[in-house]
C-alpha cells in the first residue's frame, strides 16, 4: 500500500513576527510545511497560512512587499484553501483603524477592525468561543474549550449581505469585557481566526487538524 503524501502548506513569511510555533503546530498535525516569502510557492501549495502579529498597517505593508495580496487572491479565485491567523485574520476585512490611521485591507469581507470597547486591554489569555452552527473548523470541539487570544482590536459587527445562491459564511464569536467580536470565519476556501490556534494547546491542534484535513 502506498503511503499518502502529507499535504503541503506554505506559511507566508512577510516579517509579521515569530511564526515557528505555527510551523511546529502544523507539522504536528500532519502538514509538510514550508516557510517562505515566495508568492509562487504560496500559490502552488495545497494550503496557505497567513499569520500576523503587530500593527494592521505594518502587516499590510509587509504583505504587499511580498505580493501576498495577489497570491491570496489567486488562491481564492481557484477555490484553494487559505487560513488567516490573528492580524492575518484582520487584514481580510475592508480596513483597519489603529491609532488614528485608517488602512485598507484585502477586502475579502466587509467590516472594520477597530479598538475593542473593553475596560482592560489587550485581551490577552484564554477565552471560549461561541462556534457557528455546523462549523467545520470547530468540529468535535466542546463549547467550554478555551483558545489563546492576544489583541486590542477586532471586528465588532458582521455586515455581509445574504445571497440565496451562495452558502453564508460560518461566523463564530467571542466576548471580552462585555464587548462581542468575531473570533473566526469560515467562508468557502477562506478560513481565519482572531485567536492563535498554534498557541492554544490541544484544542488549537484539533482546529488545525480540521483545516489540514480539508487539504487532502
TrEMBL record:
Keywords: Amino-acid biosynthesis, Cytoplasm, Glutamine amidotransferase, Histidine biosynthesis, Hydrolase, Lyase. It catalyses: 5-[(5-phospho-1-deoxy-D-ribulos-1-ylimino)methylamino]-1-(5-phospho-beta-D-ribosyl)imidazole-4-carboxamide + L-glutamine = D-erythro-1-(imidazol-4-yl)glycerol 3-phosphate + 5-amino-1-(5-phospho-beta-D-ribosyl)imidazole-4-carboxamide + L-glutamate + H(+); L-glutamine + H2O = L-glutamate + NH4(+). It is found in: Cytoplasm. One of its GO terms (molecular function) is glutaminase activity. The active site is at residues 86, 196, 198. Pathway: Amino-acid biosynthesis; L-histidine biosynthesis; L-histidine from 5-phospho-alpha-D-ribose 1-diphosphate: step 5/9. InterPro entries: Class_I_gatase-like, GATASE, Imidazole-glycPsynth_HisH. Its main location: cytoplasm. GO terms for cellular component: cytoplasm. Residues 10-212 form the Glutamine amidotransferase domain. It holds the Pfam family GATase. GO terms for biological process: L-histidine biosynthetic process. IGPS catalyzes the conversion of PRFAR and glutamine to IGP, AICAR and glutamate. The HisH subunit catalyzes the hydrolysis of glutamine to glutamate and ammonia as part of the synthesis of IGP and AICAR. The resulting ammonia molecule is channeled to the active site of HisF. Heterodimer of HisH and HisF. HAMAP family: HisH. This is Imidazole glycerol phosphate synthase subunit HisH. The lineage of its organism: Bacteria, Bacillati, Actinomycetota, Actinomycetes, Mycobacteriales.
Amino acid at each position: 500500500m502506498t503511503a499518502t503524501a502529507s499535504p503541503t502548506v506554505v506559511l507566508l513569511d512577510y516579517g509579521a513576527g515569530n511564526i515557528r510555533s505555527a510551523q511546529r503546530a502544523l507539522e504536528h498535525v500532519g502538514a509538510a510545511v514550508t516557510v517562505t516569502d515566495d508568492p509562487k510557492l504560496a500559490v502552488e501549495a495545497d494550503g496557505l497560512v497567513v499569520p500576523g502579529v503587530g500593527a494592521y498597517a505594518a502587516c499590510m505593508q509587509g504583505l504587499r512587499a511580498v505580493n501576498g495580496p495577489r497570491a491570496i487572491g489567486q488562491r481564492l479565485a481557484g477555490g484553494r484553501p487559505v487560513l488567516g491567523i490573528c492580524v492575518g485574520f484582520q487584514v481580510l476585512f475592508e480596513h483597519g483603524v489603529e491609532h488614528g490611521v485608517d488602512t485598507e485591507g484585502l477586502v475579502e469581507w466587509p467590516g472594520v477592525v477597530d479598538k475593542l470597547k473593553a475596560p482592560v486591554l489587550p485581551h490577552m489569555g484564554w477565552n471560549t468561543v461561541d462556534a457557528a452552527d455546523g462549523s467545520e473548523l470547530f468540529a468535535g470541539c466542546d463549547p467550554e474549550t478555551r483558545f489563546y487570544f492576544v489583541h486590542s482590536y477586532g471586528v465588532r459587527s458582521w455586515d455581509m449581505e445574504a445571497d440565496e445562491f451562495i452558502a453564508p459564511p460560518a461566523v463564530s464569536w467571542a466576548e471580552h469585557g462585555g464587548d462581542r467580536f468575531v473570533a473566526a470565519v469560515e467562508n468557502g476556501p477562506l478560513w481565519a481566526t482572531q485567536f492563535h490556534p498554534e498557541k492554544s494547546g490541544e484544542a488549537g491542534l484539533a482546529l488545525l487538524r480540521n483545516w489540514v484535513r480539508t487539504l487532502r
